[in-house]
Amino acid sequence: MSDLDEIVQLVTIAGERHIHPDFSTYVDDVDMADIRKLYEDMVVVRRLDAEATALQRQGQLGLWAPLLGQEAAQIGSARALEADDFAFPSYREHAVAYCRGVQLKELMPFWRGTSLSGWDPNKYNMATPAIIIGAQTLHAAGYGMGVNFDGANSAVITYFGDGATSQGDVAEAMGFAASFAAPVVFFCQNNQWAISEPVTLQTKAQISHRGHGYGMPTVRVDGNDVLAVLAVTRAALELAREGGGPTFIEAVTYRRGPHTTSDDPTRYRTAEDEAEWIRRDPIERIRLLLESAGALSEGDVKAIGDHADAAAAELRRGCLELEDPPAMSIFDDAYAEPHSLIDAERREYAAYLDTLDA
Amino acid sequence: MSAAAPARVPLGKAVNAGLRKALADDDKVILMGEDIGKLGGVFRITDGLQAEFGDKRVIDTPLAESGIIGTAVGLAFRGYRPVCEIQFDGFIYPAFDQIVSQVAKLHHRTAGAVKMPITIRVPFGGGIGAVEHHSESPEGYFAATAGLRVVSCSNAADAYTMIQQAIASDDPVLFFEPKRRYWEKGEADFAALDAAEAYPLHKARVVRPGTDVTLLVYGPLVTTGLQAAKVAAEEGRSIEVVDLRSISPLDMDTIADSVRRTGRLVIAHEAPVFMGVGAEIAARVSTECFYHLEAPIRRVGGFAIPYPPAKLEQHFLPDVDRILDAVDHTFTD
């Protein structure tokens, strides 16, 4: 698809457009109004992420996995998806969920601990968070095989990090997807860190080379360039829908926050490193691009900010309104069909709880 | 043989017939595994099925157990009912994470929105003179995991109906096939056996009535248990043999009913006794049937060692003599 070592970039840090011989055409239809919408998406999800982080600090969430710095990688890829495509995320893809139309209040139950999931995967064509690293990539490969068996024209995307590429499941998923020409986009957000471990501990090669070994096209894209991510993901999805099988995308980005709110990145990385990635901020370059094109007025900035604040308020409200589920619901849905052990334990625990009420 | 008598077919052929019926009845059923296509599986259990249903329904997979189960999860998301073959019991461990962390939990995790009607077929147990990793009994690991159902067939008729019932279940089912009994023949009239009306998947069955002691067995040891009961009968002792059939959930009603009648219980399985299926049953029976028990419950099974080399496996596997020794203990303890 492209030189393995090249990083596809369409917008520079200074907000200037690049033409790329292979990928620019995939965003020919994207005008300044569309780019402003991508900008708005990124501003909103950054605001939501900050709000969720604050909610965790205030004791309202048990945990949160911040996406700060990865807005372009997630928005650019998710906005490339069609409604009938299916996404298999890890646990940091809040912006992808936002783009899939997941309700803001549905983002909270998983992290607040009122549910093991927040939404119905079939409603949004997006699975709920997968905590086991890389496990979801196999689900994507299998789903893609099913798409082929159905003779359908949709595609699948799966999200994982650089650390996940060390997992056997990711290797097996790429093997299955390639062998069965499954319409899967393996979207690796190389955010440089697997909790405290740098990407150099996962592989001596470039992450994008991982896909090459499975005979699939690979692309290395500037993960902080929303337009480039949109373009390469569209290209990969198009190839998948045309029967071209899987593509591996390495989106080179940086997790600016902690791995989760329990983490302390000051122990393992430098302020200089963080400063460098602030310089490559995904939102700032699009702001510069829009402003230089005269496509972002002060009024626009305020309206977008207001929208982000309103979304954050809705997220907070949705979180605080979540009620603890009833005790007896712990037995629900362990099985799809009646199960005598569950029935017995439910009866016994209900009887026990009744003795406390008496 | 008269024309009316049911055919006697090997257990392995019965599984094959059950799979064929399931494939024919529901086009969402697909088989996947290593070597199950042209070869028909290393035990030929899927023999002829790819030729009949095509390579989109009977899929030879890459050599990757976690991949087989993990892609089955994705296929289930898409509405399929995958039937995965794990080639040998000892090869299931690379898939353990996908089975216990994903297959078992996704229905619960999604509040019932996503079903995992996956059947995982595992030829299990010893007695065929194999090399290591080919003779294990890992059923206890899976029975200990909420969200999974675990069953084991022991005869041809059950093999035919139980595999169809497992595939029809909206829950994931670990289906343990007693590999050393694949060639053992039993009566099975496939035309007359309707899986929907057959004996329920999760019900234990008294396969030989008796009055003196209950012998609880499943899978490959049902045959051994029946042999032991026959020998005991010649010595004047009446053993009631119960085929557990389902390990999760347990049919405690049938088990407790038998123990209350006989007052004694011996549980035999090939897996090591320590922390095994028998331990769970013994604990439950002691709670439910304490005042009916005439003697401590006895367990017979594998030792707390890795499965031994083939030339020593007869010492590891419960046989008629070890089972009868345990039965004797319930009268002398």
Automatic annotation (TrEMBL), chain A:
<feature type="domain" description="Dehydrogenase E1 component">
    <location>
        <begin position="41"/>
        <end position="311"/>
    </location>
</feature>
<dbReference type="InterPro" id="IPR017596">
    <property type="entry name" value="PdhA/BkdA"/>
</dbReference>
<dbReference type="InterPro" id="IPR029061">
    <property type="entry name" value="THDP-binding"/>
</dbReference>
<dbReference type="GO" id="GO:0009083">
    <property type="term" value="P:branched-chain amino acid catabolic process"/>
</dbReference>
<dbReference type="InterPro" id="IPR050771">
    <property type="entry name" value="Alpha-ketoacid_DH_E1_comp"/>
</dbReference>
<protein>
    <submittedName>
        <fullName>Pyruvate dehydrogenase</fullName>
    </submittedName>
</protein>
<dbReference type="Pfam" id="PF00676">
    <property type="entry name" value="E1_dh"/>
</dbReference>
<dbReference type="GO" id="GO:0000287">
    <property type="term" value="F:magnesium ion binding"/>
</dbReference>
<keyword id="KW-0670">Pyruvate</keyword>
<dbReference type="InterPro" id="IPR001017">
    <property type="entry name" value="DH_E1"/>
</dbReference>
<keyword id="KW-0786">Thiamine pyrophosphate</keyword>
<dbReference type="GO" id="GO:0016624">
    <property type="term" value="F:oxidoreductase activity, acting on the aldehyde or oxo group of donors, disulfide as acceptor"/>
</dbReference>
<keyword id="KW-0560">Oxidoreductase</keyword>
From TrEMBL, chain B:
<feature type="domain" description="Transketolase-like pyrimidine-binding">
    <location>
        <begin position="9"/>
        <end position="184"/>
    </location>
</feature>
<keyword id="KW-0560">Oxidoreductase</keyword>
<dbReference type="InterPro" id="IPR029061">
    <property type="entry name" value="THDP-binding"/>
</dbReference>
<dbReference type="InterPro" id="IPR033248">
    <property type="entry name" value="Transketolase_C"/>
</dbReference>
<comment type="function">
    <text>Component of the branched-chain alpha-ketoacid dehydrogenase (BCKADH) complex, that catalyzes the overall conversion of branched-chain alpha-ketoacids to acyl-CoA and CO(2).</text>
</comment>
<protein>
    <recommendedName>
        <fullName>3-methyl-2-oxobutanoate dehydrogenase subunit beta</fullName>
        <ecNumber>1.2.4.4</ecNumber>
    </recommendedName>
</protein>
<dbReference type="GO" id="GO:0000287">
    <property type="term" value="F:magnesium ion binding"/>
</dbReference>
<dbReference type="InterPro" id="IPR005475">
    <property type="entry name" value="Transketolase-like_Pyr-bd"/>
</dbReference>
<comment type="subunit">
    <text>Heteromer of E1 alpha (BkdA) and beta (BkdB) subunits. Part of the BCKADH complex, consisting of multiple copies of BkdA/BkdB (E1), BkdC (E2) and Lpd (E3).</text>
</comment>
<dbReference type="InterPro" id="IPR009014">
    <property type="entry name" value="Transketo_C/PFOR_II"/>
</dbReference>
<dbReference type="Pfam" id="PF02779">
    <property type="entry name" value="Transket_pyr"/>
</dbReference>
<keyword id="KW-0786">Thiamine pyrophosphate</keyword>
<dbReference type="GO" id="GO:0003863">
    <property type="term" value="F:branched-chain 2-oxo acid dehydrogenase activity"/>
</dbReference>
<dbReference type="Pfam" id="PF02780">
    <property type="entry name" value="Transketolase_C"/>
</dbReference>
